[in-house]
């Protein structure tokens, strides 16, 4: 492959990137997770740094143009953007996100020797950077494809990045076998055996306390109606009706923004009080998603609008707490650089934005249990979920994936929730507007789920978990240190060889 003309290699790299999304849900062709990075590894062989940059960009563009195409639904159908402009915007996102692979490929060929032991660690650093640079867009990590496929045993030890590292390393090691470098069979066998062995360990265990009976309410409110003022009452009626048969269970959970208005608005306040009283009368706790207007510092003479949050609230019998979303969606929940961009887009100054919640928020509490909360795509951030999950019995996430229609986005999102359960050794309670609502056990397995785009109620009896996985304690630090060490050794070896 190193002798292919650059144009041909570029096309091959583009195809390799296009293939990787097929490894994830809903396609689940997980073997492609090994093949796709290995193809890029081979294509970069003996390339100049400049050529590697182009090949990396081609790979990243293909990956994001296909893997992130679910954005088209929200941009075109719900963002009222024409199809050509929406496609151009998707292409722009793919070009920008492709820079991660482009810069990584350039760095690889400029500073590191060609080896799976340098390529795989660099891949992990690139994935990790995607979780925080420019607020982060942590999607399409290779390790997600291996949830429930053996090698996810590394997840509770060192997180999804460790799974990605092992998958990429094994894939590149198989590529080396094509060059008759048979010694790479040894690390392949060891990595697979260790992954399977780790899956036999249960890092957490159920508490002795009784199981928690939970009902998830999936209202299936159409996205084009959800925020219409005239549809508010209908929305509240749907959730109240679906919950009638569920009061009496320990916990009733409504999805993100199930109450589509601030808590103090005339329609909302009496409704919330009514549901709270019903929950108290039936000895049920109630958790719901709601936009929360913080009036704590407001006075009659205040001239500054109070901050508002995308929030989860706990009420009812032994239900309490308020969680404010920490990671907001750029241009969806807030406008980045709004003040800076006013001179270009003056309308931005008139656009209200959610406020990000503070770090270190206390968990919700229901029936004597601590529920670590996450809203929507916050679960895509491994370290954020890990930090929120400290000292928790369960994890709960509320979402509204109706924005992405029938695309792969909602099912990719669900796959990430599975990985967070595996990493933390906790059951995840996932309530969504249009699906998939689900109960996911401490091993990342979907125990029960709803169909998409159906009004549904999902019931389950869940055990509270106790104990701590290594990932809960150490986070991403071990795999990042190992990756940095391998790259430093590679850099030293290359410099010494060049002398």
Task: Describe the secondary structure blueprint for this structure.
Blueprint: H1 6-19, H2 32-43, H3 49-67, H4 71-78, H5 83-111, H6 116-129, H7 155-158, H8 160-177, H9 185-198, E1 204-206, E2 212-218, H10 223-226, H11 232-243, E3 251-253, H12 268-281, E4 285-293, E5 308-316, E6 319-320, E7 322-324, H13 338-341, E8 364-366, E9 369-375, H14 382-388, E10 394-399, H15 409-424, E11 428-432, E12 438-440, E13 446-449, E14 456-462, E15 465-467, H16 470-474, H17 477-498
Parallel strand pairs: 2-3, 3-4, 9-10, 10-11
Antiparallel strand pairs: 1-15, 2-14, 4-5, 5-7, 6-8, 8-9, 11-12, 12-13
Q: What's the gyration radius in Å?
A: 24 Å
Strand content: 5-15%
User: Can you tell me the CATH class of the largest domain?
Assistant: Alpha Beta
Segments where pLDDT lies below 50 for 5+ residues? 343-351
Named CATH architecture of the largest domain: 4-Layer Sandwich
Assembly state (oligomeric): single chain
The termini sit apart by 28 Å
Shape: globular
Domain module count: 2
Q: Do you know the CATH topology of the largest domain?
A: Nitrilase/N-carbamoyl-D-aminoacid amidohydrolase
Strand order of the biggest β-sheet: 6-8-9-10-11-12-13
Question: Based on helices, strands and strand pairing, what is the structural class?
Answer: alpha/beta
Number of helices: 17
CATH superfamily placement of the largest domain: Carbon-nitrogen hydrolase
How many strands appear in the DSSP assignment?
15
Report the major sheet. Answer: 7 strands, mixed
Give the integer mean of the pLDDT values: 94
């Amino acid at each position: 492959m190193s002798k292919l003309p650059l144009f041909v290699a570029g096309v091959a790299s583009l195809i390799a990137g296009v293939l990787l999304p097929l490894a994830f849900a809903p396609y689940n062709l997980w073997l492609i997770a090994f093949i796709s990075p290995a193809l890029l590894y081979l294509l970069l062989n003996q390339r100049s740094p400049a050529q590697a940059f182009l090949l990396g960009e081609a790979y990243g563009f293909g990956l994001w143009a296909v893997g992130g195409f679910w954005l088209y639904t929200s941009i075109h159908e719900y963002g009222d953007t024409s199809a050509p402009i929406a496609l151009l915007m998707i292409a722009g996102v793919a070009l920008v996100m492709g820079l991660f692979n482009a810069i990584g490929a350039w760095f690889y060929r400029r500073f590191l020797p060609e080896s799976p032991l340098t390529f795989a660690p660099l891949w992990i650093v690139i994935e990790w950077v995607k979780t925080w640079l420019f607020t982060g867009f942590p999607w399409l990590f290779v390790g997600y494809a291996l949830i429930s496929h053996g090698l996810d045993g590394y997840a509770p030890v060192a997180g999804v990045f460790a799974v990605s590292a092992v998958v990429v390393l094994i894939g590149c090691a198989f590529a080396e076998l094509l060059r008759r470098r048979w010694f790479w069979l040894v690390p392949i066998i060891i990595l697979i055996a260790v992954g399977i062995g780790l899956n036999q360990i249960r890092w957490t265990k159920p508490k002795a306390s009784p199981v928690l009976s939970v009902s998830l309410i999936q209202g299936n409110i159409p996205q084009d109606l959800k925020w219409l003022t005239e549809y508010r009452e209908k929305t509240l009626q749907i959730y109240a009706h679906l919950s009638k048969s569920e009061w009496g269970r320990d916990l009733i959970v409504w999805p993100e923004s199930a109450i589509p208005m601030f808590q103090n608005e005339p329609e909302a306040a009496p409704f919330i009080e009514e549901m709270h009283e019903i929950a108290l009368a039936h000895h049920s706790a109630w958790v719901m998603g709601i936009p929360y207007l913080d009036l704590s510092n407001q006075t009659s003479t205040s001239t500054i609008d109070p901050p508002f949050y995308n929030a989860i609230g706990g009420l009812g019998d032994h239900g309490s707490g308020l969680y404010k979303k920490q990671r907001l969606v750029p241009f969806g929940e807030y406008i980045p650089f709004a003040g800076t961009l006013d001179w270009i887009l003056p309308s931005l100054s008139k656009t209200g934005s959610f406020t990000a919640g503070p770090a270190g928020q206390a968990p919700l509490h229901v029936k004597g249990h601590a529920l670590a909360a996450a809203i929507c795509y916050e679960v895509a951030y491994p370290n954020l979920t890990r930090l929120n999950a400290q000292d928790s019995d369960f994890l709960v996430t509320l979402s509204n994936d109706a924005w992405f229609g029938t695309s792969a986005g909602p099912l990719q999102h669900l796959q990430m929730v599975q990985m967070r359960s595996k990493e933390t050794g906790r059951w995840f309670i996932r309530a969504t507007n249009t699906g998939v609502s689900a109960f996911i056990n401490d091993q990342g397995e979907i125990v029960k789920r709803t169909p998409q785009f159906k009004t549904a109620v999902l019931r389950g009896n869940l055990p509270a978990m106790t104990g701590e996985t290594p990932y809960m304690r150490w986070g991403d630090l071990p795999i990042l240190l190992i990756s940095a060490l391998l790259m430093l050794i590679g850099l030293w070896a290359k410099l010494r060889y060049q002398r």
